[in-house]
Amino acid sequence: MFEQYLPIFVLLGVAFVLALAFMALSRFLGPYRPNTVKLKPYESGMDPVGQAKDRYSIAFYLVAMEFIVFDLEVVFLYPWAVRFLDMGTGTFVAMTVFIVILFIGLIYTLKKGTLDWDMKNFKYEALKK
Amino acid sequence: MAEVTLSSFIVLGVALFMLLNSAAIAVYAERRVAAFIQNRMGPNRVGPAGLLQPIADVLKLLLKEDVTPTEGNKFIHAVAPMIPVITALMTVAVIPFGEGLYATNINASVLYLLAVASLGVYGVTLAGWASNSKYSLLGGLRAAAQMISYELPLGMAVASVVIFVGSLRVVDIAAYQETWWFFFLNPLGAIIFIIAAFAESNRTPFDLVEAEQELVGGFHTEYSSMKFGMFFLAEYMHVVINSMLMTTFFFGAYHLPFAGYWLPELSPLVKGILDVSVFTIKTGFFMFLFIWVRWTIPRFKYNQVMKLGWSRLLPLSIANFIVIAAILFFIVN
Questions:
Q1: Does the structure's ipTM exceed the value 0.85?
Q2: A2-128: in CATH 3.40.190.10
């Protein structure tokens, strides 16, 4: 049973060794002459201002949250999609109701503007304080 | 159940070798096709017709200095380029290249493909985060948001194929298409899958991750030498892999169109050669499509990309799935 997974683990090993080999080769073959200016993060020729790990837009977090909801939906769909023809009307109706509820949820979040990346509704006044 | 024998490992080895080579060929092909589309020469100096250009590129990258910015996280900075390369290589284990020509036939190989493909986002995001450069961070964030957004329509499109076959084995999906390709049974799903695959591999018109006018180099701004080369290699391997997946899921895998109706019984050797050639030609065509689109269509704005993903493709793919499920249900019962 589990021996089917053997090629996958062999492949993982080979891929890992290959990736390490690329890294090691460039380390040994290339020159290494670091200096302070060279090691600074790139910022169009200026000295970097502050740290890069700053606050960023909440929209990225919202996308991640929405993703979890709908990715779970997709994961639930797979086992059902495989067997649904053998399972009769009950499961078909149940799954349809489940999908329709999530679909309504998606329409609701879209209408609410949760995933609205257009800058039309952006309030510049709020930034000025 | 199919046993894992020596031949599985031979297929695996050949597939791995071909994938690495086709990534190199894709780099060369991209530059030549780009030159053709833009009416210029392209690389033609190294070797006959410039065919040795990829080797020269790799040598140059290997001989360059490997600069690691001091203010970032050095360990993650070093690990990040390995992730997309490893995940791209790992997908070949379950793809059937011909009848019986696959490395392994695990019972959830569709889920395995989706899982491995979605791990690729870690490489890009961690690269952006570990560099401690503002351009890199923005590129990484964009990559994370964009790739997870398009994973949903991609997953739904694949689910609308699984529903026909009733099996999560890629081998079964390929075998099912002997008569009708899924492109004919499920054209909307195929189109959604192609668009989502373009977005997943961060290619134009969805290459917001490294939009050079806005983000310099995007997530790989702080990368040099072979670490950059590995991101580059991984991008082209993802092009090849996504072409293979399009072929396998929607364009009949190794079957000629409607082959079940007219193709006579062939000896195993001839059938094997035919299968692999058909698969290769289809994959080559989709690689060409990737390149063609890149040099023809301009880049979207980021809000347009997110809007297309969430308020167009996702509802469309859910509707497509449920309509197909309903039709199948009423035909069978």
A1: no
A2: no
